[in-house]
Design a protein that fits this description.
- The chain is of the alpha/beta class.
- The chain folds into two domains: about 5-195, inorganic pyrophosphatase (n-terminal core); about 205-325, Diaminopimelate Epimerase, Chain A, domain 1 (Roll).
- Helices cover about 40% and strands about 20% of the residues.
- It has a six-stranded parallel beta sheet with strand order 3-2-1-4-5-6.
- α5 packs antiparallel against α6 (about 170-185).
- It starts with a helix and ends in a 6-residue tail after the last helix.
- Bound molecules: manganese (II) ion.
- Manganese (II) ion binds next to loops.
- Manganese (II) ion (MN) binds near residues 28 and 131.
C-alpha cells in the first residue's frame, strides 16, 4: 500500500493521538504538527499536541497554536498513537518519548536524511523540502480537505524550511504544493508579513551583538558567529528569537560553510547549526559531533562553551574543505 494510505489507515484506527515535533521547534515543526492536529480534529479523533518547549512567538498566530501544550502539560493516559514530525531521532523529542511506554506505536514522518527509523511506520521523505510538504501529499493522497487554516500551517512549514523558496531543497514539487495551498486560501503576502516583518527591536539589538562575533576563516570559506545567554540578558530576548540567524554567516559570498553557535543556558552546551554549499556535506560535519540533518543543513550539540565549540567546529570544517579538495593551508 502507498505509505500515505498506510498511515491514514493507522490513524483512522486510533482514538487518542499525541502529536509532537522536535525540541527548539521551527516553522516546519509547528506548521506540520498544527496541520495534523487540525486534520485529526476534523476526523473526530482526539488529538493532543505536546511539545518539548514553547512555540516561538513568531508562530503563535497560527491556527491551533493556542492548543499546543508544553510537556508535561496535556498528557493523557488514553494515548494509543504518537505522530512524530520533522524529527530525525527520538532524542529530538526526548521528554515526550521518555514518557511513552516501551514499544509505543509511533508514526514517524520526517525528511531528514539521517532519520533513524524509530517508528512502526517510517515515512522519510527523500528530496522533499519539509515535513509540511509531506503532509500536503498525505492530505491529497487521502482526499482529505485542506482548509484555509490547514493550508496556512503547511505553507508556513514549507516557506520556513526552504528559506522562502531560496534553499536547494526547493523543487518543482515544492512550488506546486505551495501553489495548490494558495489555491486553498493562503494569502502569501499576508502570511509572510506576519512571519518575517513583525520583528521586535530587541531582536535587532541581539542580532547586532551576535554579528559582532562574526569572523571568517579558511580564506573566507568558513564563517562563524555565536549567541550567548549574556547577550539574551542584555537585549531581553531568548533562544527562540535566533531562528533565522543561521542564514547570516552563509550569506557571505565566499563562504562554503556557515556556522552558528548558540549557548544553551540550562545544560552548558552549545547548539551548533551548520549550512554548506559546494562539495562540503553539512550532515557529515554534524555527524562527527553526534548530530545530523541534511546535506546542506545540519545541527548538533557541543559539550562546552561557544569559544571551544568555535575552535572544534572550525577545525572539523577545515578538514572537510581539504577533503573536498577546495581548500589548502
Ligand atoms: Mn524540517
Amino acid at each position: 500500500m502507498q505509505i500515505e494510505k498506510e498511515i491514514y489507515e493507522i490513524i483512522r484506527k486510533s482514538k487518542s493521538i499525541i502529536v509532537t515535533s522536535h525540541e527548539r521547534i521551527d516553522g516546519d515543526g509547528v506548521g506540520s504538527e498544527l496541520a495534523v492536529h487540525l486534520t485529526l480534529k476534523r476526523m473526530g479523533t482526539a488529538s493532543t499536541v505536546i511539545n518539548v518547549g514553547e512555540i516561538p512567538l513568531t508562530y503563535r498566530f497560527l491556527p491551533g497554536a493556542e492548543e499546543a501544550n508544553v510537556f508535561p502539560d496535556g498528557w493523557r493516559d488514553d494515548f494509543d498513537l504518537c505522530i512524530a514530525l520533522d524529527s530525525g531521532t527520538t532524542d529530538r523529542f526526548a521528554d515526550v518519548y521518555g514518557r511513552l511506554p516501551g514499544g509505543f506505536p509511533i508514526v514517524n514522518i520526517d525528511h531528514h536524511y539521517s532519520n533513524t527509523r524509530y517508528g512502526i511506520v517510517n515515512w522519510v521523505g527523500d528530496e522533499v523540502s519539509s515535513a509540511g510538504e509531506m503532509l500536503y501529499r498525505f492530505l491529497r493522497a487521502n482526499d482529505l480537505e485542506i482548509t484555509r487554516d490547514i493550508a496556512t500551517c503547511l505553507y508556513t512549514a514549507i516557506i520556513t524550511d526552504t528559506g522562502r523558496f531560496c534553499y536547494s531543497n526547493t523543487y518543482a514539487n515544492t512550488l506546486e504544493a505551495a501553489a495548490d495551498l494558495v489555491g486553498c486560501g493562503v494569502v502569501p503576502a499576508d502570511l509572510t508579513r506576519r512571519l518575517y516583518r513583525a520583528e521586535r527591536p530587541e531582536v535587532f539589538r541581539l542580532r547586532s551583538l551576535s554579528m559582532a562575533t562574526l569572523e571568517t576563516r579558511a580564506g573566507g570559506k568558513i564563517a562563524v558567529m555565536h549567541v550567548t545567554t549574556d547577550m539574551h540578558r542584555k537585549t531581553n530576548t531568548t533562544y527562540l528569537d535566533t531562528q533565522d540567524f543561521v542564514d547570516i554567516p552563509k550569506s557571505i559570498g565566499s563562504v562554503e560553510v556557515g556556522i552558528l553557535l548558540r549557548e544553551i543556558a540550562e545544560d552548558h552546551k552549545t547548539r551548533v547549526s551548520i549550512r554548506t554549499e559546494g562539495n562540503v556535506n553539512a550532515n557529515d560535519i554534524a555527524a562527527e559531533f553526534g548530530g545530523g540533518g541534511h546535506r546542506r543543513a545540519a545541527g548538533c550539540s557541543y559539550d562546552g562553551d561557544t569559544d571551544s565549540a568555535r575552535e572544534a567546529l572550525v577545525a572539523t570544517a577545515v578538514r572537510h574543505l581539504k577533503e573536498a579538495g577546495v581548500y589548502e593551508e
